[in-house]
Amino acid sequence: MQAAERVFAEKGFAATSMGDIAEQAQLPRSNLHYYFKTKDDLFRAVLQDLLEVWKQDALSFEHFDDPRVVLTSYIRAKMAHSRSRPLGSKIWAEEMLHGAPVLRANLDESLVPWARLKEAKIRRWVEQGRILPVQPSALLYMIWASTQHYADFGYQVALLNDGEPLSDRDFESAVQTVTSVILRGIGLEP
């Protein structure tokens, strides 16, 4: 799966072959085909894995009710995955940019209900006066865009950082900044 994620991100879906992935994974192609009959099946599995990881990042929505705790935890988890799995974010972006040709049906069944639950919690916070009025989906989109930027535009981030990837300290500062800006935007102190 990691080899597939790497090759799909580097070459794109259309230019990737099962042979490329088998070579990257240092496996015979037949072994790869034993688990994944087609390139579409493997690509779908990579995308589904990413979606499940990102859903796990949002478990704070289920475990806590304090908007500061929930959003701080969620942003930190999303930023951590942008750093540890930047290629996955690029694959996801490519799939979305093309209208989700591989995952379209799955998204209606998995992503949409999942997002609606998060939006409902944000809406409750607004109704309870715990955060400033905000469109729940817009808040989620802002979090996704801000956190995934560090993966999708990693080259640009490094370029603007004197050609170097962010150090641990710089990355932690970025996490703190993103968190602070989002929390202050909804009327919370970080």
Short description:
The protein is mainly α and 190 residues long. Helix content is 75%, strand content 0%. The protein has one domain (52-185): Tetracycline Repressor, domain 2 (Orthogonal Bundle).
Report on the architecture of this protein.
- This is TetR family transcriptional regulator.
- The protein has 190 residues and is mainly alpha-helical.
- It has one domain: Tetracycline Repressor, domain 2 (Orthogonal Bundle), CATH 1.10.357.10.
- Helix content is 75%, strand content 0%.
- The protein has 12 helices and no strands.
- It has helices at 2-11, 18-25, 29-35, 39-57, 60-63, 67-84, 86-97, 104-109, 111-127, 136-152, 154-159, 168-185.
- The longest helix has 19 residues, at 39-57.
- The relative contact order is 0.11.
- The model has no long low-confidence stretch (mean pLDDT 95).
